[in-house]
Amino acid sequence: MKEIGQWKSLEEVIKSLSPGADFQTTVELFRIYLKELNKWNKVINLTSVSSLNNGVIRHILDSLSLYPLVKGDGKILDIGSGGGFPGIPLKILDPSLDMTLLEPRRKRWSFLNHIARLLIIKDMQILCMHSNEFTDFFMEYNGPFDIVVSRALASPPVFIDIAVPLISSKGCVICMVSENDALIVKEGMILSGLILKQKKIYRLPGIEQPRFLLVFKKN
Questions:
Q1: Of 153, 189, 150, 147, nearest to 166 (Cα)?
Q2: How far apart are CA 101 and CA 82, in angstroms?
Q3: What are residue 34's phi and psi, to 5 degrees?
Q4: Could you tell me whether strands 145-150 and 167-178 are parallel, antiparallel, or unpaired per DSSP bridges?
Q5: How far apart are CA 109 and CA 101, in angstroms?
Q6: Quick check: helix, strand or coil at residue 112?
Q7: What phi and psi values does residue 178 have, to the nearest 5 degrees?
Q8: CA separation (Å) from 81 to 113, 152, 184?
């Protein structure tokens, strides 16, 4: 019953975020994605979440919480994508998003390419390199970006320092963080020349601790 409830939660989120979507097809794509994630996770370390059920909550719903902030025509870069979060769930929900995934570990990069082929995800770049390498010639890969995001790369000060050279003049950096990381960042705080413009709190079903989206823009 718990598993049914969590997939129902996903269906409700899809309907609310993208009312015109074929939510049954979208949910099925997420099921295939998580099954492949669990299968590959037995061979390479993609995620600490060990069950399909937990994956719905901790990965997919968490990733989709970002959608209201990234939907539109902007170019998005997901740094340290790992198992594909948040970039692939966002792209499944809205195939029109202009998404680039950056993952330095080759085995994880191979998984991301496998998923893109399996789910027939089009118009998404998947690059295998470190962020400091990428900075040197990112203009060749769709940059500068309007939105740079990461779900589990580093603390906000470290991630922002990495992301600053990659954003456009009106672009933003979005950190997806726990409550502990959010507490160190105050409203109006400036990090590497970016100012905190928005701090959005949200909660995932069945998880007590809140999550935060921190939006930084050029001052």
A1: 147
A2: 9
A3: -70, -35
A4: parallel
A5: 9
A6: helix
A7: -80, 175
A8: 12, 8, 24
The predicted-structure confidence for 41-78, as pLDDT tens digits, reads as follows 888 877 765 555 566 677 889 999 999 999 988 999 99
pTM of structure: 0.91
CA dist., res. 43 & res. 151, Å (int): 22
Two tokens, residue 189: 């705080």
- Structure tokens of 13? 């989120």
pLDDT digits (tens, 9 = 90+) for 113-122: 999 999 999 9
Q: Compute the distance between CA of residue 219 and CA of residue 215 in angstroms, rounded to an integer.
A: 12
Superfamily of domain 2-218: Vaccinia Virus protein VP39 (3.40.50.150)
- Cβ-based burial of 188 (10 A; exposed 0-12, middle 13-18, buried ≥19): exposed
Report which of 154, 158, 167 is spatially closest to residue 76, judged by C-alpha positions: 167
**What span, in angstroms and rounded, lies between the C-alpha atoms of 127 and 102?**
5
Q: Find all residues with CB under 8 Å of 168, minimum gap 6, and list them.
A: 144, 145, 146
Q: Where are the domains of the chain?
A: 2-218
